[in-house]
């Protein structure tokens, strides 16, 4: 399994971090060792002092494909879940300043909590899915799939031009505004519509 993630896919998030709007989707990876399942706690790593939450809708790839036409992309994923792209913002800032990859800032152990998946049949409109993240009972991020600059199908088509997608791969589709730091003792709860899919602590 590989995790392919999209950066800068919500205009409001681009603005809050004062980044440039990309001409094409920004792609990065997380290794399978980044995954946390079953609401396991997130252990704050010792090599950073500034871990931020970035909640995202995630897609589960259901069949192998490459060079996928956007009009057929919907045939290549079968479920949607919720994930958090934990980012060591201090490490990312250092890498960006030197023009280097974000791998250590995005791919460290435990940096990708993912929820159970919901079948596509539970969503009447894939272009109108609400999701949010609460930290200690306070809503920090909320978004809707209609706010994405690149749709699910466009993302799959773009990635597959360069990288073969395989069954079981997971795609992180970008985060809305409201990203911010977490600290030891925080409780994170993530929702898709009104269904709680994530509920874990930072330790």
From TrEMBL:
Pfam families, sorted: FAA_hydrolase
UniProt KW Metal-binding keyword: yes
Keyword Metal-binding appears in the UniProt entry: yes
Residue ranges annotated for the Fumarylacetoacetase-like C-terminal domain, each copy included: 2-192
Gene3D superfamilies for this protein: Fumarylacetoacetase-like, C-terminal domain (3.90.850.10)
Keywords for the protein's UniProt record, in alphabetical order: Metal-binding
InterPro entries: Fumarylacetoacetase-like_C (IPR011234), Fumarylacetoacetase_C_sf (IPR036663)
Sample GO molecular function, one term: metal ion binding
Name under which the protein is recorded: 2-keto-4-pentenoate hydratase/2-oxohepta-3-ene-1,7-dioic acid hydratase (Catechol pathway)
Organism of origin: Pontibacter chinhatensis
Species lineage: Bacteria, Pseudomonadati, Bacteroidota, Cytophagia, Cytophagales
């Amino acid at each position: 399994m590989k995790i392919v993630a999209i950066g800068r896919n919500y205009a409001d998030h681009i603005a809050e971090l004062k980044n440039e709007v990309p001409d094409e989707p920004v792609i990065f990876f997380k290794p399978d060792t980044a995954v946390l399942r079953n609401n396991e706690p997130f252990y704050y790593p010792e090599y950073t002092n500034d871990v931020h939450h970035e909640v995202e809708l995630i897609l589960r790839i259901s069949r192998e494909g490459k060079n996928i036409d956007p009009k057929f992309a919907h045939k290549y994923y079968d479920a949607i879940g919720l994930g958090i792209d934990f980012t060591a913002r201090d490490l990312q800032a250092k890498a960006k300043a030197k023009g280097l990859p974000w791998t250590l800032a995005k791919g460290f152990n435990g940096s990708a909590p993912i929820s159970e998946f919901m079948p596509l049949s539970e969503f009447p409109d894939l272009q109108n899915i609400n999701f949010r993240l609460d930290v200690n009972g306070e809503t920090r991020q909320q978004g809707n799939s209609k706010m994405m600059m690149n749709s699910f199908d466009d993302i799959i088509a773009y990635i597959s031009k360069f990288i073969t997608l395989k069954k079981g791969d997971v795609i992180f589709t970008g985060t809305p505004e409201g990203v911010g730091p977490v600290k030891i003792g925080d409780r994170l709860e993530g929702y898709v519509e009104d269904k709680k899919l994530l509920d874990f602590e930072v330790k």
